[in-house]
């Protein structure tokens, strides 16, 4: 996608070597195919599939974002220990990991 063409300093630059570029292209094609098969049903019950090609950049960014956030959350737990349990019954039934992904699903 377009964002990968910019280097660390914000300059348009082909900074990846060929094996990295090939790996990125392979991953991007996988994302296109995966999202292209997602066909949520609207109220009229006729499928409207996602255009994996058109949404590729956003999908890659979203996947990278959740991956980075998940790793940072794990590092936080490892460094500081688990968050104190919620007193509210509605939330105390879930693990920290479940709460993380419940919150992600609501974004």
From TrEMBL:
GO terms for cellular component: plasma membrane. SUPFAM superfamilies: Metalloproteases ('zincins'), catalytic domain. GO terms for molecular function: metalloendopeptidase activity. It comes from the Eukaryota. Residues 1-107 form the Peptidase M13 C-terminal domain. GO terms for biological process: protein processing. PROSITE patterns: NEPRILYSIN. PANTHER family: GH14155P-RELATED (PTHR11733:SF240), ZINC METALLOPROTEASE FAMILY M13 NEPRILYSIN-RELATED (PTHR11733). This is Peptidase M13 C-terminal domain-containing protein.
């Amino acid at each position: 996608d377009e964002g990968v063409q910019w280097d660390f300093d914000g300059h348009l630059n082909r900074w990846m070597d060929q094996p990295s570029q090939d790996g990125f292209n392979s991953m991007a094609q996988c994302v296109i195919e995966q999202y292209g098969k997602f066909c949520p049903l609207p109220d009229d019950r006729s499928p409207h599939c996602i255009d994996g090609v058109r949404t590729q950049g956003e999908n890659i960014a979203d996947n990278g974002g959740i991956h980075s956030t998940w790793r940072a959350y794990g590092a936080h737990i490892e460094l500081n220990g688990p968050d104190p349990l919620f007193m509210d019954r509605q939330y105390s039934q879930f693990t920290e990991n479940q709460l993380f992904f419940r919150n992600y699903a609501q974004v």
